[in-house]
């Protein structure tokens, strides 16, 4: 049997999932009146308040904005039926998920950390990572709800979110670097040549090998590379383009280049251990 579903927050993710699943008897709540109207248009039941919405639910999908995730857990916990399951699908830090879990579990409700790992326009086929001491059960529940690609990744709340946010460092970072690159290169009239050069130098390596190679270059040549990136940042400022990413690139290359780990350890794990063990490294730039 499909459990009784409640959606807390009805933005893009909530509406996409509801339209794809059409959960019978689903209820929902959103702080914004216009989103509550959208809930009704999608056939989601509304109560007079959130307490009425939550009173009879078995599974709650928390899909609020990131800055509201912890507040939602704390505010709505008193209204949750015991033994219900709170699926926290918000993109927040592992420590935020841990604090939310404390609030939810204090009222004998099962808390689960769920990380959405791709754009929600994939609907119920979007990949989900699940962690917490009820992760395996939550995967079964998600499959019952129609999700096709849910996978447990550990018993610790926050592990799924750590995977998502660490990945986001690269994905969103590359997007930000792309913006900085194309705005500068197009203004300089060299965009096509830069793209050709990047294509020619691209190495098709697995990410673990690529990370090991990148750290190797930074540890050996960080000083020289930081000096080069200082010039790149100055070029950007002269063009009137933000140098935010390039400035931080300077800081990282300088930080690692100054650790005096030459020659660097051979493996990625050894490099990471050596960097963190260096007295001058504080993980800050």
From TrEMBL:
InterPro entries: 6-PGluconate_DH-like_C_sf, 6PGD_dom2, 6PGDH_NADP-bd, NAD(P)-bd_dom_sf, Pgluconate_DH_NAD-bd_C. Residues 4-135 form the 6-phosphogluconate dehydrogenase NADP-binding domain. GO terms for molecular function: NADP binding. Residues 185-254 form the Phosphogluconate dehydrogenase NAD-binding putative C-terminal domain. This is DUF1932 domain-containing protein. The lineage of its organism: Bacteria, Pseudomonadati, Pseudomonadota, Alphaproteobacteria, Sphingomonadales.
